[in-house]
Structure prediction request, 190 residues.
Amino acid sequence: MTNSEQGGRRSAEVTRAAILRAARDRFAAQGYERTTIRAVAGDAGIDPSMVMRYFGNKEQLFDAALAIDLRLPDLVDVRPQELAEVIVRHFLARWEGDPSDDALLVLLRSAVTNERAAERMNVIFGEQVAPVLAAALGPGAARRVGGLVAAQLLGLALTRYLLRLPAVAGLTADQVVATLTPAIRATLES
Prediction:
């Protein structure tokens, strides 16, 4: 018999997942400053003290909500002329592939107004994106173009998923790939 079958109690894993889901939804919709522990707890269907028990405080909850694995592919064996398309397709799939994983949206929305989120964005770039680009392009080229590639992809994310500009949000994934790939390719080759 599971915990939920014994009087309606949730397992620790289920409770933690519910809190993170509610926190990501709140942080994505309202940002860090306007999100409260009480609101997250209400969304998760638990007492606010449980949020504190699992995450300590709002700052630690925010850090947990921003734990992101970009699941970047190994680009070493990708032909140079295909590299830009592989990168664009991966990021589109990462943003659109799992609607329950909006940690990237939380991070993007928060990074423009919250120093902690901006630092987290830098860490993710440094630990996940930069090494993959360096392996594919060489360290010098990756340092030279990595930030500009990130700017293009984050610009796409901002206009497509946060601002939802009709001219960008209305495009199919294939249209985005066809339009953005040449720009990313030009940046990679600069």
In short: Confidence is low (pLDDT under 50) at residues 1-7. Residues 139-162 form the longest helix (24 residues). The chain has two domains: 3-65, 80-189.
